[in-house]
TrEMBL record:
InterPro entries: Cbr1-like_FAD-bd_dom, FAD-bd_FR_type, PyrK_electron_transfer, Riboflavin_synthase-like_b-brl
Domain FAD-binding FR-type: residue ranges: 4-95
Name the record gives this protein: Putative dihydroorotate dehydrogenase B (NAD(+)), electron transfer subunit
Species name: Candidatus Roizmanbacteria bacterium GW2011_GWA2_37_7
Top-level lineage group: Bacteria
Source taxonomy: Bacteria, Candidatus Roizmaniibacteriota
Coiled-coil annotated residue ranges, if any: none
Gene3D superfamilies assigned: Translation factors
Length: 106
Protein backbone atom coordinates (compact mmCIF):
# COMPACT_ATOMS: atom_id res chain seq x y z
CA UNK A 1 0.00 0.00 0.00
CA UNK A 2 1.36 3.45 -0.82
CA UNK A 3 1.25 6.76 1.10
CA UNK A 4 -0.54 9.33 -1.09
CA UNK A 5 -0.32 12.38 1.20
CA UNK A 6 3.19 13.59 2.01
CA UNK A 7 4.47 11.91 5.16
CA UNK A 8 6.99 14.23 6.83
CA UNK A 9 10.18 12.31 7.63
CA UNK A 10 13.40 13.60 9.23
CA UNK A 11 16.70 12.95 7.47
CA UNK A 12 18.41 10.26 9.58
CA UNK A 13 21.75 10.06 7.81
CA UNK A 14 23.54 11.66 4.87
CA UNK A 15 26.22 9.76 2.97
CA UNK A 16 28.45 11.82 0.69
CA UNK A 17 29.08 9.63 -2.37
CA UNK A 18 31.06 12.25 -4.30
CA UNK A 19 31.01 16.04 -4.89
CA UNK A 20 27.70 15.84 -6.85
CA UNK A 21 25.89 12.87 -5.31
CA UNK A 22 24.54 12.29 -1.77
CA UNK A 23 22.51 9.44 -0.27
CA UNK A 24 19.78 10.39 2.22
CA UNK A 25 18.62 7.81 4.78
CA UNK A 26 15.17 7.76 6.43
CA UNK A 27 13.47 5.61 9.05
CA UNK A 28 10.26 4.28 7.53
CA UNK A 29 9.24 0.68 7.05
CA UNK A 30 7.14 -0.06 3.98
CA UNK A 31 6.89 -2.69 1.26
CA UNK A 32 8.77 -1.75 -1.90
CA UNK A 33 9.90 -3.75 -4.92
CA UNK A 34 12.94 -3.29 -7.18
CA UNK A 35 12.42 -0.48 -9.71
CA UNK A 36 9.85 1.50 -7.75
CA UNK A 37 10.24 5.18 -6.91
CA UNK A 38 8.94 7.73 -4.41
CA UNK A 39 8.03 11.42 -4.59
CA UNK A 40 10.13 13.61 -2.28
CA UNK A 41 8.80 17.08 -1.40
CA UNK A 42 11.48 19.61 -0.57
CA UNK A 43 9.46 22.17 1.47
CA UNK A 44 9.11 25.51 -0.28
CA UNK A 45 10.89 24.28 -3.41
CA UNK A 46 9.35 21.37 -5.33
CA UNK A 47 8.48 17.68 -5.34
CA UNK A 48 10.64 15.27 -7.38
CA UNK A 49 10.81 11.48 -8.06
CA UNK A 50 13.68 9.32 -6.81
CA UNK A 51 14.41 5.61 -6.89
CA UNK A 52 14.09 3.79 -3.56
CA UNK A 53 16.76 1.61 -1.97
CA UNK A 54 15.93 -0.42 1.13
CA UNK A 55 18.84 -0.61 3.61
CA UNK A 56 17.21 -2.93 6.12
CA UNK A 57 13.73 -3.58 7.41
CA UNK A 58 13.23 -0.08 8.82
CA UNK A 59 15.35 2.19 6.66
CA UNK A 60 15.21 3.36 3.08
CA UNK A 61 17.54 5.57 1.08
CA UNK A 62 17.48 7.81 -1.98
CA UNK A 63 20.64 8.66 -3.88
CA UNK A 64 20.45 12.12 -5.41
CA UNK A 65 22.57 13.92 -8.00
CA UNK A 66 22.49 17.73 -7.50
CA UNK A 67 21.53 19.01 -10.96
CA UNK A 68 18.88 21.74 -10.52
CA UNK A 69 16.98 23.85 -7.98
CA UNK A 70 15.22 21.02 -6.12
CA UNK A 71 18.13 18.62 -5.89
CA UNK A 72 20.58 21.40 -4.94
CA UNK A 73 18.17 22.49 -2.16
CA UNK A 74 17.96 18.88 -0.96
CA UNK A 75 21.77 18.69 -0.89
CA UNK A 76 21.81 21.73 1.45
CA UNK A 77 19.49 20.05 3.98
CA UNK A 78 20.93 18.79 7.28
CA UNK A 79 20.36 15.83 9.60
CA UNK A 80 16.94 16.17 11.25
CA UNK A 81 15.48 18.43 8.53
CA UNK A 82 12.15 17.12 7.24
CA UNK A 83 11.13 16.18 3.71
CA UNK A 84 7.72 14.96 2.49
CA UNK A 85 7.50 11.34 1.27
CA UNK A 86 4.85 9.79 -1.00
CA UNK A 87 4.97 6.33 -2.51
CA UNK A 88 6.10 3.83 -3.48
CA UNK A 89 4.96 4.20 -7.10
CA UNK A 90 5.71 2.58 -10.43
CA UNK A 91 6.03 -0.92 -11.73
CA UNK A 92 8.67 -3.30 -10.52
CA UNK A 93 10.77 -6.16 -11.78
CA UNK A 94 11.79 -9.49 -10.29
CA UNK A 95 15.34 -10.14 -9.26
CA UNK A 96 16.86 -13.10 -11.13
CA UNK A 97 17.95 -16.11 -9.13
CA UNK A 98 21.58 -16.01 -8.04
CA UNK A 99 23.86 -17.61 -10.63
CA UNK A 100 27.58 -18.11 -10.49
CA UNK A 101 29.61 -16.73 -13.36
CA UNK A 102 33.21 -17.29 -14.25
CA UNK A 103 35.25 -14.94 -16.40
CA UNK A 104 37.67 -17.80 -17.04
CA UNK A 105 35.27 -19.97 -19.02
CA UNK A 106 35.51 -20.01 -22.76
C1 LIG B 1 10.93 7.79 -11.95
C2 LIG B 1 12.14 8.67 -11.70
C3 LIG B 1 13.10 8.25 -10.79
C4 LIG B 1 14.22 9.05 -10.55
N1 LIG B 1 15.16 8.64 -9.66
C5 LIG B 1 16.24 9.41 -9.43
C6 LIG B 1 17.24 9.01 -8.49
O1 LIG B 1 17.17 7.94 -7.86
N2 LIG B 1 18.30 9.85 -8.27
C7 LIG B 1 18.43 11.05 -8.94
O2 LIG B 1 19.41 11.76 -8.70
N3 LIG B 1 17.50 11.45 -9.82
C8 LIG B 1 16.42 10.66 -10.08
N4 LIG B 1 15.46 11.07 -10.95
C9 LIG B 1 15.60 12.36 -11.55
C10 LIG B 1 15.25 13.39 -10.50
O3 LIG B 1 13.87 13.47 -10.30
C11 LIG B 1 15.92 14.65 -11.02
O4 LIG B 1 17.19 14.65 -10.41
C12 LIG B 1 15.18 15.87 -10.69
O5 LIG B 1 14.04 15.94 -11.52
C13 LIG B 1 16.04 17.10 -10.87
O6 LIG B 1 15.28 18.11 -10.34
P1 LIG B 1 15.88 19.54 -10.18
O7 LIG B 1 14.73 20.49 -9.91
O8 LIG B 1 17.01 19.51 -9.21
O9 LIG B 1 16.50 19.86 -11.60
P2 LIG B 1 15.72 20.26 -12.94
O10 LIG B 1 15.46 21.73 -12.95
O11 LIG B 1 14.56 19.33 -13.15
O12 LIG B 1 16.85 19.88 -13.98
C14 LIG B 1 17.98 20.72 -14.13
C15 LIG B 1 18.78 20.24 -15.33
O13 LIG B 1 19.41 18.99 -15.01
C16 LIG B 1 19.01 17.99 -15.95
N5 LIG B 1 18.85 16.76 -15.18
C17 LIG B 1 17.74 16.35 -14.52
N6 LIG B 1 18.00 15.18 -13.86
C18 LIG B 1 19.31 14.88 -14.16
C19 LIG B 1 20.17 13.81 -13.78
N7 LIG B 1 19.75 12.81 -12.95
N8 LIG B 1 21.45 13.81 -14.24
C20 LIG B 1 21.90 14.81 -15.05
N9 LIG B 1 21.12 15.84 -15.45
C21 LIG B 1 19.85 15.88 -15.01
C22 LIG B 1 17.71 18.50 -16.56
O14 LIG B 1 17.56 17.99 -17.89
C23 LIG B 1 17.94 20.00 -16.58
O15 LIG B 1 18.71 20.39 -17.69
C24 LIG B 1 14.37 10.29 -11.24
C25 LIG B 1 13.39 10.69 -12.15
C26 LIG B 1 12.30 9.88 -12.41
C27 LIG B 1 11.28 10.33 -13.40
Amino acid sequence: MSVDHPLMLPIKDIIIENERVKTFVFDYNFYVQPGQFCMIWIPGIDEKPFGIVKRDGFEFMITVAAVGDATKALHKMKLGDHIGFRGPYGSSFSMPEKKSFSILTG
